[in-house]
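> call design_seq(struct)
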């Protein structure tokens, strides 16, 4: 038996009126009367005494009403709890990100979303790039944040921002005092590289090759934090996104020197499954990520800062 039929009967019993029950259930009075009649035929008993006004339930009608009204209330409460649960799920944003998108910036974006949609909760998982793609493809992340996005039929990539690649070196390095470093000045330098399996390693190698430069890889790591530590102990120099160097530049542990005569940027993109339907909270968070810099009148490209310059020159970041 359909729940709607029970609800109409209970409303007829409660209002003692077919017209009011019909209005409450958004049906015609004739339809409400037919619904109750069908119940009576199915049960083989009379539930409503129609010969008097206002309507009255028969003795069996009263017994049936007492049993049904609890069922109707319970069903309505169940539906409400399911809707609430779905609303909570829709307000949860699952993000998979490469390590170096940065905890500091992301915390600011999460606060902006909370201000606009207080019930929204953002969970950001920082992962190896391969795992970011896996999480998005398998649907356990609403979207991902990656650099140098791969071409994929299953994924689409939205522009987010671009970060200048700069030379990272210790303060005592011969190139540390330069206002700008030409790529050719890196020729023969000891170099701390990304692992060969990473896309950013291939892009850095391509850039150096296009510039006709050969470096000497001394160490290889799969994340920026380890690369920065190696550079700090003079294991070599490295090309890194400028925002990721802010903590070390602020504390004079490393120097960030701009590249001269050969611009090189790291594109950060938002990836999601093609044709996927995102929740309103996820869409709003993406909007915040993509447009906040423009609303603040800031460039989406971050430039390096040397010791002594304004602390606003680098955006705070973490690993790759």
């Amino acid at each position: 038996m359909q729940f709607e039929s029970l609800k109409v009967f209970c409303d007829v019993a409660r209002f003692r009126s077919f017209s009011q029950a019909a209005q409450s259930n958004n049906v015609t009075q004739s339809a409400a009367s037919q619904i109750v009649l069908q119940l009576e035929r199915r049960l083989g008993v009379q539930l409503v005494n129609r010969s008097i006004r206002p309507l009255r339930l028969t003795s069996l009608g009263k017994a049936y009403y007492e049993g049904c009204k609890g069922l109707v209330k319970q069903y309505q409460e169940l539906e409400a709890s399911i809707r609430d649960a779905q609303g909570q799920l829709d307000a949860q944003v699952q993000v998979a990100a490469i390590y170096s998108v940065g905890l500091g910036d992301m915390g600011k974006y999460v606060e902006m979303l909370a201000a606009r949609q207080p019930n929204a909760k953002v969970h950001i998982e920082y992962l190896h790039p391969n795992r970011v793609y896996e999480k998005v493809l398998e649907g356990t992340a609403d979207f991902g944040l990656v650099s140098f996005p791969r071409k994929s039929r299953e994924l689409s990539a939205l522009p987010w921002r671009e970060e200048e690649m700069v030379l990272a070196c210790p303060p005592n390095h011969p190139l540390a005092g330069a206002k700008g470093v030409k790529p050719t000045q890196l020729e023969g330098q000891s170099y701390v590289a990304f692992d060969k399996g990473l896309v950013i390693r291939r892009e850095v190698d391509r850039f150096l090759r296009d510039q006709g430069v050969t470096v000497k890889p001394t160490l290889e790591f799969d994340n920026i934090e380890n690369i920065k530590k190696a550079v700090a102990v003079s294991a070599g120099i490295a090309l890194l996104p400028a925002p990721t160097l802010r903590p070390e530049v602020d504390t004079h542990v490393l120097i960030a020197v701009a590249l001269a005569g050969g611009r090189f940027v790291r594109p950060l993109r938002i990836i999601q499954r093609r044709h996927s339907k995102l929740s309103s909270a996820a869409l709003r968070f993406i909007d915040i990520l993509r447009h906040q810099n423009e609303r603040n009148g800031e460039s989406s490209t971050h430039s390096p800062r040397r010791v002594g310059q304004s602390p606003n020159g680098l955006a705070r970041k973490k690993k790759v």
